[in-house]
Specification:
By secondary structure, this protein is α/β, with parallel strands linked by helices. The chain has one domain (12-31, 43-78, 85-263): TIM Barrel, CATH 3.20.20. The protein has helices spanning 17-31, 55-62, 89-94, 105-110, 115-127, 140-144, 148-165, 194-211, 213-218, 229-236, 253-263; strands spanning 6-10, 45-49, 67-71, 99-102, 131-136, 177-180, 220-224, 243-246. The protein has an eight-stranded parallel barrel with strand order 1-2-3-4-5-6-7-8, surrounded by six helices. Helix 3 (89-94) links the parallel strand 3 and strand 4. Helix 1 (17-31) runs parallel beside helix 2 (55-62). The radius of gyration is 17 Å and the shape is globular. The structure holds 2-phosphoglycolic acid. 2-phosphoglycolic acid (PGA) binds next to strand 8.
């Protein structure tokens, strides 16, 4: 089963107009991706996710290139309305996004996002035609207590349950990408070993296969948490790791380009 690898850069709350322009130019030059995907040697799907306010700028800069644009969050309400401070999926589509990260552990931990809210955001993204990159992952104490599968399974099940209850049904999962990001590995320099990543990825895929073998076989599972040029190849070499969600290392063009090369 060949799944197209994906590398997504989560810029988090970093950047400025000038820094982002330089970063995008560096990535496009490094990947030879300043032209449409078909004209490059890129086999991996490459996405960058700048902060909301810079998305329109980034869309302009990426226009006609092989690199796609994602947001870091989306409102759970699918349409327009009185939701001060929120950004709706159709707005993200309108300015050129194709992807959106939902349920990042920083959103869960710092902004109180529950499994249910993350599931609603996933549905809102799908309803807008965005590809949600749904993040799951356990805390260090949960791993130490042997609860990794239980926690990741619970987070995943919330999304699956919401899909089943929606008009999309489980088939909606085929439009999603799942990112496994152990919280203890995010921004800490402490990466999951390839074996640890593979173990959880295989668990996630198996759980999806239980619901639908075809979707389980096709869905892309990204690993995130201190991925760097130096460890990417080993991680991406695992059978159920289909690429990465990259934080810190996505802010350096050279490093990000090298990570994409490792996914090719
Ligand atoms: P990191 O972040 O690569 O800086 O660890 C990954 C993420 O939070 O998506």
């Amino acid at each position: 089963m060949t799944r197209r690898p994906m590398v997504a850069g989560n810029w988090k709350m970093h950047g400025s107009r000038a820094a982002n322009a330089a970063l995008i130019d560096g990535v496009l030059a490094g990947l030879g991706a300043g032209v449409a995907a078909a004209a490059t040697g890129l086999t991996a799907e490459v996405v960058v996710c700048p902060p909301f306010v810079y998305l329109a700028d980034a869309a302009q800069r990426l226009a006609g290139s092989a690199v796609e644009l994602g947001a870091q969050d989306v409102c759970a309400e699918p349409g327009q309305g009185a939701f001060t401070g929120e950004v709706a999926g159709p707005m993200l589509r309108d300015i050129g996004c194709s992807h959106v990260i939902v349920g990042h552990s920083e959103r869960r931990a710092l902004y109180g996002e529950s499994d249910e809210l993350v599931a609603r955001k996933t549905l809102a993204a799908l309803a807008s035609g965005l590809t949600p990159i749904v993040c799951v992952g356990e805390l260090l104490e949960e791993r130490d207590a042997g609860r990794t599968h239980e926690v990741v399974g619970r987070q995943l099940d919330a999304v699956i349950a919401a899909l089943r209850a929606s008009a999309l049904g489980l088939a909606g999962l085929a439009q999603c990408v799942i990112a496994y990001e152990p919280v203890w590995a995010i921004g800490t320099g402490r990466t999951a070993s390839p074996a640890q990543a593979q173990d959880v990825h295989a668990y996630i895929r198996g759980r999806i296969v239980e619901g639908d073998a075809t979707i389980g076989g096709w869905i892309r599972l990204l690993y995130g948490g201190s991925v760097k040029a130096g460890n990417a190849r080993e991680l991406f070499g695992m059978p159920d790791v289909d690429g990465g969600l990259i934080g810190g290392a996505s802010l350096k063009a050279e490093e990000f380009v090298a990570i994409v090369a490792a996914a090719q």
